[in-house]
Specification:
The chain is α/β, with parallel strands linked by helices and 310 residues long. It folds into two domains: 139 residues, Rossmann fold; 158 residues, 3-Layer(aba) Sandwich (Rossmann fold), CATH 3.40.50.1370. Helix content is 42%, strand content 14%. It has twelve helices and ten strands. The chain has a five-stranded parallel beta sheet with strand order 1-5-4-2-3, with helices on both faces. A five-stranded parallel beta sheet has the order 8-7-6-9-10. Helix 4 links the parallel strand 4 and strand 5. Helix 1 packs across helix 5, helix 1 packs across helix 12 and helix 2 crosses helix 12. It starts with 7 loop residues before the first strand and ends with a helix. It binds phosphoric acid mono(formamide)ester and norvaline (NVA). Norvaline binds next to helix 6.
Length: 310
């Protein structure tokens, strides 16, 4: 039985440290137990409202709900009356009449906030321009599986200060993981995130630094993480971004050789091979990207059980 103090998950900020650990530990346990046969969410329905494409988030949530005994309804936002001008408020009220939980993937985080404020059911952020909490729960789970403890761990983020980066920095600070983020000038996370991470890291006596040289972040580190330089919605800046990040911010064998021998490499996927990461690294012996992708399923089952009550 998992119970969460808030009835929504907009960012990893919404979870206490204890709740993060409880969700991860439950997910590790349920992964070990195989498919759940008890169907705790029998008769419950999860709606998925997506403004953007998705492979992992959609598949893992739909499979998670099915394995928990529930049902799902996938809605591309373009197919809703929302696309003809119905308000988010009225859409949220309508969705709440039929289903028990909503996962939304949106462009603007403001949409997640409006959904949370107007839905009478739990709302889960399946990625916005600011945060990706379900991804970060899977990332922390993967780190714990491979490293057994967060104590004394160090993590390097290499690349864009994007949605994944924002929640990852917050999640690591909450777990006391030391972080160095190599991010080019002008692509840092928003100040509100940096302030929160700095405060949280200080309270855990862990460290948090932004550096400009990837090698300074990766040296002797336990975990190396990157993500695309061109997130969904940033396509118009593709050329500008590529020249800001490449070649310096590519995670390749040479950069990875500075990490510890038993370091792990993570990427939320989809990857643009040859840009932020080379195939040698993503397919190499340090890479745990497929565990990370699988863990989306397990951790989301824990989140659904924490938010949707049978
Ligand atoms: N990592 C992740 O959220 O993948 P999708 O965009 O495929 O859902
Ligand atoms: N930062 C990426 C993550 C995709 C899962 C994006 O927003 O497109």
């Amino acid at each position: 039985m998992i119970s969460l103090s808030k009835n929504y998950l907009a960012s990893i900020i919404d979870l206490s440290d204890k709740e993060i650990l409880a969700l991860i530990k439950h997910a590790i346990e349920s992964k070990g137990n195989g498919k759940n046969t008890q169907q705790p969410l029998k008769g419950k329905t999860l709606a998925l409202m997506f403004e953007k494409p998705s492979t992992r988030t959609r598949l893992s949530f739909e499979t998670a709900m099915f394995q928990l005994g529930g049902n799902t309804i996938y809605m591309n936002s373009n197919d809703l009356q929302l696309s003809r001008g119905e308000s988010i408020e009225d859409t949220a009220k309508t969705i709440s009449l039929y289903v028990d939980c909503l996962v939304a993937r949106v462009y603007s985080h403001e949409t997640i906030i409006q959904l949370v404020q107007n839905c009478k059911i739990p709302v889960i952020n399946g990625l916005s321009d600011l945060y990706h909490p379900c991804q970060i729960l899977a990332d922390l789970m993967t780190i714990l599986e491979h490293k057994k403890s967060f104590d004394g761990l160090s993590l390097a983020w290499v690349g864009d200060g994007n949605n994944v980066c924002n929640d990852l920095l917050i999640g690591c600070a909450k777990m006391g993981i030391n972080v160095k983020a190599a991010i080019p000038e002008g692509y840092e996370p928003p100040q509100i995130v940096l302030d929160l991470v700095t405060k949280e890291a200080k309270s855990k006596s862990s460290s948090f630094d932004i550096v400009r040289e990837p090698i300074d972040a990766v040296k002797n580190v336990d975990v190396v993480v990157t993500d695309t330089f061109v997130s969904i919605g940033n396509e118009k800046d593709d050329g500008k971004r590529r020249s800001a990040f490449l070649p310096k911010f590519q995670v390749n064998e040479k950069l990875m050789s500075n990490s510890k021998d038993d370091a792990i490499f993570m990427h939320c996927l989809p990857a643009k091979r040859g840009q932020e990461v080379t195939s040698e690294v993503i397919d190499g012996k340090k890479s745990v990207v497929w565990d990370e992708a699988e863990n989306r399923l397990h951790v989301q089952k824990s989140v659904l059980m924490g938010l949707v009550h049978g």
